[in-house]
Amino acid sequence: MEKMQKFNKIGKILLVVCAAVSLLVIAGCGNKNANETTFKVGIYGSDDRIWKPLANKLKKQGINLKLVEFNDYNTPNKALESGELDINAFQNYHFMRDWNKANKGNVVAIGDTYIAPQRIYSNKIKRLSQLKSGDKVSIPSDATNEDRGLRVLQQAGLIKLNNASLHTVKDVTENKKNLKLTPLDAAQTAHSLTDVSAAVVNNDVAQDANLKPEPAIYKEQINKESKPYVNIIATTKSKKNNKTYKKVVKAYQTKFIAKKIKEVYNGSTYAAWNYNFN
């Protein structure tokens, strides 16, 4: 009987100890989660290969980035303003300003990422001079990239534009080869190469379509006038001073990410935060 009572006492003590240990483990886990903050980041296409390594580094600082991938240029800012995202990284300054104006938006830039020249590609010709009268040339159709694509065609000597601040095909004043300029959704420009003589393609779209930069028949020249086309990390105006967001920007603007940008985009894209635009 005495032995039985001793066993009961020992059993009760073990139960108390186990319960205490369990509480400590749970508390420890709770503290770990409490110190980790999760933020949703909207990105486009191939940029996941830049942001995933960055997310791994930030996780050590207690910042957990959840990457949300988009395949169009229209949704990420809407998701930002609705609160579905905390920050996004897909657009340039020019696009952001135009989007805010058209949508009465409050999106603001909090840091530069990279500058990516547009390129003219073709499956049918090797040089711009081989374009014939009446040939079709596709360009991105969203307002910002249509304007930029037309400027690239002008830079290449194929057309001339008026002095509008945001060009459309209606603003072409000279088109000696009578090129048929066809605006398409930006993501479709690369796929249009089977149907057109040439296409102006955004760099991220080219990357996703496995178009290498070397075969391009023309590359946009980057100079001081290219600054509006620097890509950015953005958030809403009310959150622009968020300290954690600033930590994300600081972690992005490093030699590690600059090297990663060069690797992912095969040398076709340049880190913008220390780029010399002269």
Automatic annotation (TrEMBL):
Q: Major location, coarse class?
A: membrane
Lipidation feature positions (S-diacylglycerol cysteine): C29
- Sorted UniProt keywords: Lipoprotein, Membrane, Palmitate, Signal
Give the subcellular location.
Membrane
For membrane topology, the record states: Lipid-anchor
Which InterPro entries does the record associate with it? Lipoprotein_NlpA
Q: Does the keyword Membrane apply?
A: yes
SUPFAM superfamilies per record: Periplasmic binding protein-like II
Q: Which domain of life does the protein's organism represent? A: Bacteria
Q: Which residues form a coiled coil?
A: none
GO cellular component terms, alphabetically, are: membrane
The record's similarity note reads: Belongs to the nlpA lipoprotein family.
Looking up PANTHER family in the UniProt record yields: D-METHIONINE-BINDING LIPOPROTEIN METQ, METHIONINE-BINDING LIPOPROTEIN METQ
- What is the protein's name according to its record? Lipoprotein
**Organism taxonomic ancestry:** Bacteria, Bacillati, Bacillota, Bacilli, Lactobacillales
